[in-house]
Hints:
single chain; alpha+beta; L,D-transpeptidase catalytic domain-like; 8-stranded mixed barrel; 13 strands; globular
Amino acid sequence: xxxxxxxxxxxxxxxxxxxxxxxxxxxxxxxxxxxxxxxxxxxxxxxxxxxxxxxxxxxxxxxxxxxxxxxxxxxxxxxxxxxxxxxxxxxxxxxxxxxxxxxxxxxxxxxxxxxxxxxxxxxxxxxxxxxxxxxxxxxxxxxxxxxxxxxxxxxxxxxxxxxxxxxxxxxxxxxxxxxxxxxxxxxxxxxxxxxxxxxxxxxxxxxxxxxxxxxxxxxxxxxxxxxxxx
Length: 230
């Protein structure tokens, strides 16, 4: 989920795809070269969109994952392992709306901490939730409310490096019913640490890939504000 100015920029990027894919760059990027013309075209779009943030690519299918310069983010938003002192059992995903951090509790009473972007005040779910299903390079379908607010939004966007859902998505369910909320990647790393979504929780692409690989469907999700579950 994203805002109007972001989609305006994306619209330009997608429209200019043919031009961009023909450009060359002098920037040295880490990671292996693209293995197909399709991946190379996606890489060119990522280089254009991420500009100073991009440092390389992590092999993935059907697109390679853009890697960003972590020094552009404050340390508190970079992935790390820390001691977990809360009561939550291993496998729980904690979302802290105040600190803009997410944690995955591990079996040894530590937790992996990730920087996130959260929904603007009043946007988001309340109460216990869980991971209902998982998706690789998910598509994006804006809600009717989002399209009413901004008619320029596409009705549907397939997965890809310029899709606001990023490289992976965990779909949030409550009482066994899928909600409109997701934990997902982003093509806008500069939004990490901010309130900049319609209620979904954004991670760096490389971080949501890490979380995706660690949690099964059914993993509990707890959202906190002011130190208390919401």
